[in-house]
C-alpha cells in the first residue's frame, strides 16, 4: 500500500492565509492514482496562525467548504483513502475534526479531537462538551483496515494508548501541528505510539520553516518503531510503501510465547496505581458550570452526615459538590465530623480532637441516625479522597489545624499532601473561617483553591476574602446582602451561600446571583438549580 503524507508550510502571519491555503490545494492536485492513502495535517481550513476566535471562525467560514470538497474530489480522482483535519460545525460551535474519505470521495466517518489545548476552549471557544463524556476510541474501518486517530495534543496523553490498542487497530492517523516540539521529540512520541498500539503511525504536520528543527516531522512509523520516513521540516510530499498486515510480536516476558506489547503489559496492569480516570470523572472546579448545588455534609437527609453513605448518595445523585468537615485527632490523623464534640453524632462523649483515631474507630457513628446504619465508623479524609477524588468537587471545611501531634503549618501540609496524593487539586477547595489558615497558605505560596468562611463578624467576609486572595466566599445567611454579592463578583470571587433546603428561597438566592447553594436536602434543591442551569 502506497502512503502519501503531505507537509505544507505554515505562517504565523494570518494575512498570508490565502497564499498558504492555495499551496494546500496545490499539494492535493499533485496527488495521483498510484497512492492508496493520503494524509494531511491539522486545521487545513486555518492555514495560518489564528490568534483570536474571530480569525479562527473567519478562516473556517472562508475555506472549510472549499477544502472539504477538494479533499473529497482528490480521494475520488486518485482512487485513494484520504484523511484530513478541518472544522466541523455543531449547534455549540466548531469542532476540531479529522475527516476520513473513502476511495469514492465519500466521508466514511469523523474523529473529534479528544484533548483540546486550553486556548481552543477559552480563547477560540471550540465546542468541547463531548470531551468531558465517556467515549470509546474512534475506529473507522475501510477495506478491512482498522484506523484509529489522534490529533496534535492527543499525542501527549499516553494513558489513552492502551485503550486504543484494545481496539486492534492497524493504522493510527495523526493529523497534527505540535509546532513547538523538536523533530527528535516528535519521532520518539510517534515510535512510542506505534510500539504500544502495534500499528502503523502515519503523521502529517506543518513545516514552520525548512531550516527549523521544531514542528513538522511528518512521518511514517512501523509497529516495531522503525522510522520509514521523517520529513523533518521539508515542505512537500513523501510517499512510502507499507504492508498494513505486518505486526510486531515479541516474547511476553522471557521464555514466553510471542505477543503484542500491549497484550504483554495488559496481563500485569494495575489500574488503581494510576491517576483517577474513567467515566465517573467530572469536570473540575474551574470549568464546571454555575449555579451549583453542594450537598452539605453529603446527602445528610438520607444517611448519617459526614459519612461515606451520605457522600456516595450525593455523588450518585449527580451532586456537583459535596461539603464535609475536617478535624485533627490527638495523634494527628484527619477525620470528618461536623461537631467538635462526639455526643450528638456517636455513642461517645468528649471532644473529638482529644481522642486518637483508634479510639474514635471504636465508636458508633450511625445508630443515632437510624438502626440500619448501626455500627458505622468515623471516616478519615484519606478514605474520602480514595473513593471520591475527581468524582465531584469537594468543599472541604477545615474546622481546625490544632493537634498536639504537630504545628499548624505541619497540619496544613498534611492536608495539602493528601489532596495532591489523590490528584484532587482541581476538584476541591478549602473553606475555612480561620484567618491563620489563609495566612499559612499565602506564606507558603500554596496553589490550593480557598474559600473564606464566616467568622466572628460575617458582614466582613467579602473584604476578608479579597484581603486574603480567596477565590470563593461562603456567605452565611442571614448575614449578607446584594451589595456583598456584587462586590465579590466584581473581584472575581465565587459566592456560596450556607444554606437552603427551601425551593422558593433557593430561587431568591439564584436571582441574587449566588453561584453555589449548600443544602441538607440535595434532591429538592438540585431540581430547582438544574432547571436554572438549563436556562443559561
- Strand coverage percent: 15-25%
Can you tell me the residue ranges where pLDDT is under 50 for at least 5 consecutive residues?
none
| Straight-line distance between termini | 51 Å
How many distinct beta strands? 24
Question: How would you describe the overall organization of this protein?
Answer:
This protein is an alpha/beta fold. It contains 15 helices and 24 strands. It has helices at 17-30, 53-78, 118-122, 161-165, 183-197, 261-266, 308-316, 357-360, 381-388, 408-421, 435-444, 461-467, 482-490, 503-512, 522-535; strands at 2-7, 37-39, 81-90, 93-101, 107-112, 140-142, 145-151, 171-175, 200-204, 219-221, 227-230, 236-241, 250-251, 258-259, 292-296, 321-328, 334-336, 379-380, 393-398, 428-432, 450-452, 472-476, 494-498, 516-519. Strands 15-16-19-20-21-22-23-24 form an eight-stranded parallel beta barrel, surrounded by five helices. α12 (461-467) packs parallel to α13. It starts with a strand and ends with a helix.
Strand and helix layout:
Elements: E1 2-7, H1 17-30, E2 37-39, H2 53-78, E3 81-90, E4 93-101, E5 107-112, H3 118-122, E6 140-142, E7 145-151, H4 161-165, E8 171-175, H5 183-197, E9 200-204, E10 219-221, E11 227-230, E12 236-241, E13 250-251, E14 258-259, H6 261-266, E15 292-296, H7 308-316, E16 321-328, E17 334-336, H8 357-360, E18 379-380, H9 381-388, E19 393-398, H10 408-421, E20 428-432, H11 435-444, E21 450-452, H12 461-467, E22 472-476, H13 482-490, E23 494-498, H14 503-512, E24 516-519, H15 522-535
Parallel strand pairs: 1-2, 2-3, 7-8, 8-9, 15-16, 15-24, 16-19, 19-20, 20-21, 21-22, 22-23, 23-24
Antiparallel strand pairs: 1-12, 3-4, 4-5, 6-7, 9-10, 10-11, 13-14, 16-17, 17-18
Helix pairs in contact: 1-2, 12-13, 14-15
Amino acid at each position: 500500500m502506497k502512503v502519501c503524507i503531505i507537509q505544507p508550510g505554515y505562517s504565523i502571519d494570518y494575512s498570508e492565509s490565502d497564499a498558504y491555503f492555495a499551496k494546500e490545494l496545490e499539494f492535493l492536485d499533485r496527488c495521483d492514482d498510484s497512492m492508496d492513502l493520503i494524509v494531511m495535517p491539522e486545521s487545513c481550513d486555518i492555514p495560518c496562525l489564528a490568534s483570536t476566535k474571530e480569525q479562527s471562525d473567519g478562516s473556517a467560514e472562508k475555506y472549510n467548504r472549499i477544502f472539504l470538497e477538494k479533499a473529497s474530489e482528490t480521494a475520488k480522482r486518485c482512487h485513494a483513502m484520504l484523511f484530513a483535519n478541518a472544522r466541523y460545525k455543531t449547534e455549540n460551535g466548531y469542532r476540531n475534526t479529522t475527516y476520513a474519505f473513502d476511495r469514492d470521495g465519500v466521508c466514511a466517518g469523523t474523529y473529534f479531537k479528544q484533548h483540546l489545548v486550553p486556548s481552543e476552549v477559552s480563547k477560540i471557544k471550540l465546542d468541547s462538551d463531548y470531551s468531558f463524556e465517556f467515549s470509546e476510541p474512534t475506529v473507522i474501518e475501510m477495506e478491512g483496515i482498522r484506523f484509529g486517530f489522534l490529533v496534535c495534543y492527543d499525542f501527549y496523553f499516553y494513558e489513552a494508548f492502551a485503550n486504543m490498542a484494545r481496539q486492534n487497530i492497524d493504522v493510527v492517523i495523526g493529523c497534527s501541528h505540535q509546532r513547538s516540539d523538536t523533530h527528535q521529540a516528535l519521532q520518539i512520541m510517534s515510535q512510542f505510539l506505534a510500539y504500544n498500539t502495534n500499528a502503523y503511525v502515519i503523521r502529517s504536520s506543518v513545516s514552520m520553516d525548512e531550516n527549523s528543527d521544531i514542528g513538522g516531522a511528518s512521518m511514517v512509523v512501523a509497529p516495531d518503531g522503525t522510522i520509514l520516513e521523517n520529513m523533518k521540516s521539508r515542505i512537500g510530499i513523501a510517499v512510502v510503501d507499507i504492508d498494513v498486515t505486518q505486526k510486531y510480536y515479541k516474547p511476553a516476558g522471557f521464555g514466553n510465547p510471542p505477543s503484542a506489547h500491549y497484550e504483554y503489559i495488559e496481563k500485569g496492569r494495575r489500574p488503581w496505581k494510576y491517576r483517577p480516570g474513567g467515566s465517573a470523572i467530572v469536570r473540575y472546579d474551574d470549568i464546571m458550570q454555575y449555579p451549583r448545588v453542594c450537598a452539605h455534609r453529603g446527602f445528610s437527609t438520607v444517611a448519617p452526615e459526614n459519612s461515606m453513605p451520605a457522600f456516595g448518595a450525593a455523588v450518585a445523585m449527580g451532586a456537583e459538590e459535596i461539603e464535609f468537615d475536617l478535624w485533627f485527632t490527638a495523634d494527628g490523623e484527619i477525620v470528618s465530623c461536623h461537631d467538635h464534640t462526639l455526643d450528638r453524632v456517636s455513642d461517645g462523649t468528649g471532644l473529638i480532637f482529644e481522642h486518637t483515631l483508634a479510639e474514635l474507630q471504636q465508636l458508633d457513628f450511625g445508630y443515632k441516625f437510624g438502626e440500619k446504619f448501626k455500627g458505622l465508623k468515623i471516616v478519615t479524609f484519606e478514605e474520602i479522597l480514595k473513593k471520591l477524588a475527581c468524582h465531584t468537587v469537594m468543599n472541604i471545611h477545615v474546622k481546625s489545624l490544632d493537634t498536639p501531634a504537630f504545628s499548624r503549618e505541619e497540619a496544613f501540609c498534611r492536608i495539602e499532601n493528601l489532596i495532591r496524593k489523590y490528584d484532587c487539586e482541581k476538584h476541591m477547595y478549602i473553606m475555612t473561617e480561620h484567618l491563620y489558615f489563609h495566612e499559612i497558605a499565602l506564606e507558603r505560596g500554596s496553589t490550593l483553591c480557598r474559600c473564606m468562611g464566616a467568622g466572628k463578624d460575617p458582614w466582613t467576609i467579602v473584604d476578608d476574602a479579597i484581603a486574603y486572595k480567596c477565590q470563593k466566599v461562603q456567605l452565611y445567611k442571614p448575614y449578607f446582602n446584594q451589595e456583598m454579592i456584587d462586590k465579590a463578583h466584581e473581584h472575581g470571587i465565587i459566592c456560596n451561600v450556607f444554606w437552603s433546603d427551601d425551593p422558593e428561597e433557593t430561587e431568591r438566592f439564584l436571582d441574587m446571583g449566588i453561584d453555589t447553594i449548600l443544602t441538607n436536602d440535595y434532591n429538592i434543591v438540585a431540581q430547582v438549580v438544574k432547571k436554572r442551569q438549563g436556562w443559561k
